[in-house]
Design goal:
This protein is an alpha/beta fold. It has one domain: TIM Barrel (Alpha-Beta Barrel). It contains 8 helices and 8 strands, in the order βαβαβαβαββαβαβαα.
C-alpha cells in the first residue's frame, strides 16, 4: 500500500489569510493541499478557481496540490488548473461525457488523474479506466459542503475499491473525503484508504494555528500507523 498522505482541505481555512494558513498546515505535517472546486451547478455551492491555485504557487507553496473538481462540464477547466500549478486533478464521472477522454486530457497537461465516486455512485465505473488512473477518491459525504458527518457505508465501498486497486498491481492511491477525523481515521485506513482529506477537523482544531494543526495531524498519522502495524 502507498505511504500515508494527509491532505487538508482549504475549504475550511481562513481565506482572509490563505497563504499563511497553507504554510502553517504544511509546517504542521500535512503532505498535500486539497482544493474543493465547486461551481453552483454540479453541486449547490460556489468556491474557488484556478487563480487561487496559481496564487498559492506564487506565494511559494511547493507541496502537491490535489484538485477535486465538482464542476460540470469538467473538460473546459482542466487546462486552467494544470497551468495554475495543480499536481493531481480528479473529477466526477457524472460530469464528463467521456470519462476516459477526460483522464487522457488531464494527463496530457502533465497532471496525475483521479476519478471521484459519490456515496451512491457504483464502483463499476472504474472497470474500464482504473488502470489509467493515479487515484480513486471516494466521497464519504455528499459533495457540496464541508463539515458533514462520515457516511458509514463508505467503509465497505473502500474495501471493494481496495480489492480492485490491488488486483491491478499498480500504485493507485485510494483517497477518502468527508467527515474524516482523528477518532475515525484508523477505521477508514483499515478499510483500505491511504490518502485522507480533512478540512474542519484540522482547520478548526483548538489551540494556536500551527500547534493545533500539528496535534491533529500527528494523531491522525499515529492512528493510521497503528492500523498498518
Amino acid at each position: 500500500m502507498q505511504s500515508t498522505v494527509i491532505a487538508p482541505s482549504i475549504l475550511s481555512a481562513n481565506f482572509a489569510r490563505l497563504g499563511e494558513e497553507v504554510d502553517n498546515v504544511l509546517k504542521a505535517g500535512a503532505d498535500w493541499v486539497h482544493f474543493d472546486v465547486m461551481d453552483n451547478h454540479y453541486v449547490p455551492n460556489l468556491t474557488i478557481g484556478p487563480m487561487v491555485c496559481e496564487a498559492l504557487r506564487k506565494h511559494g507553496v511547493t507541496a502537491p496540490i490535489d484538485v477535486h473538481l465538482m464542476v460540470e462540464p469538467v473538460d473546459r477547466i482542466v487546462p486552467d488548473f494544470a497551468k495554475a500549478g495543480a499536481s493531481l486533478i480528479s473529477f466526477h464521472p457524472e460530469a464528463s461525457a467521456h470519462v476516459h477522454r477526460t483522464v487522457q486530457l488531464i494527463k496530457s497537461h502533465g497532471c496525475q488523474a483521479g476519478v471521484v465516486l459519490n456515496p451512491a455512485t457504483p464502483i463499476d465505473v472504474l472497470d474500464w479506466v482504473l488502470e489509467d488512473l493515479d487515484m480513486v477518491l471516494l466521497m464519504s459525504v455528499n459533495p457540496g459542503f464541508g463539515g458533514q458527518s462520515f457516511i458509514p457505508s463508505a467503509l465497505e465501498k473502500l474495501r471493494r475499491v481496495r480489492e480492485k486497486i490491488d488486483a491491478t498491481g499498480k500504485p493507485i492511491r485510494l483517497e477518502i473525503d468527508g467527515g474524516v477525523k482523528a477518532d475515525n481515521i484508523g477505521e477508514i485506513a483499515a478499510a483500505g484508504a491511504d490518502t485522507f482529506v480533512a478540512g474542519s477537523a484540522i482547520f478548526n482544531a483548538p489551540g494556536s494555528d500551527q500547534r493545533g494543526y500539528a496535534d491533529v495531524i500527528a494523531r491522525m498519522k499515529d492512528a493510521v500507523a497503528k492500523v498498518r502495524g
